[in-house]
Amino acid sequence: xxxxxxxxxxxxxxxxxxxxxxxxxxxxxxxxxxxxxxxxxxxxxxxxxxxxxxxxxxxxxxxxxxxxxxxxxxxxxxxxxxxxxxxxxxxxxxxxxxxxxxxxxxxxxxxxxxxxxxxxxxxxxxxxxxxxxxxxxxxxxxxxxxxxxxxxxxxxxxxxxxxxxxxxxxxxxxxxxxxx
Length: 180
Prior knowledge:
Layout: H1 9-41, E1 50-56, E2 65-71, E3 84-93, E4 96-101, E5 112-114, E6 119-121, E7 128-130, E8 135-137, E9 146-147, E10 149-152, E11 155-160
Antiparallel strand pairs: 1-11, 2-3, 3-4, 4-9, 5-6, 6-7, 7-8, 10-11
């Protein structure tokens, strides 16, 4: 192979190295730029914090706690049933509700509601929570994660979309009955 006039071997390899480095940089920059820009161009419906319907308030009797589900707002068509997320809905009275994530505040295991004892219980490490979501016993250091809710035209809606993280928990009841 002959080199063009006035181009040394060293200069040719320098130019090839710069060309190859530019190509690799462009290939790596594309997904990085996409990751950084994606929150700005994300559809409004998929944003965390959107209000999602849990159904009519009539399906939640006063004084009862029921399991309900909502569809994750960022779900894709191929997600199937894995995009349905469970939550516990407690109707205190009228239009006053508490909506809890099903995850234990300790390690995220799914808690179950036991009507007989009036407790949410975690099967993994023995965590227990009162009906108002506050900590009763066990390793969790805080209460259950609670979703903000609103009632709009007879429909219960929650603000969801992100996995629960440590933050404000259900407030402890001051007039809670003593543990048996």
